[in-house]
């Protein structure tokens, strides 16, 4: 597990999430810990590292 920081697409605050890098492709929704809006996270991992990380507004 790696802690990854990103900017919320709603409130623009810096928030963090734990990413399980043993799973190569992930897509899930997690609420922002600041504004509580749902954020879609798309993550690609390889060799226990995050290769792609997207935090998207769920309305997109």
UniProtKB/TrEMBL annotation:
Superkingdom: Bacteria
Q: Which InterPro entries match?
A: zinc_ribbon_bacterial
**Pfam families attached to this UniProt entry:** Zn_ribbon_21
Q: What is this protein called?
A: CPXCG motif-containing cysteine-rich protein
Q: Lineage in the entry?
A: Bacteria, Pseudomonadati, Bacteroidota, Flavobacteriia, Flavobacteriales
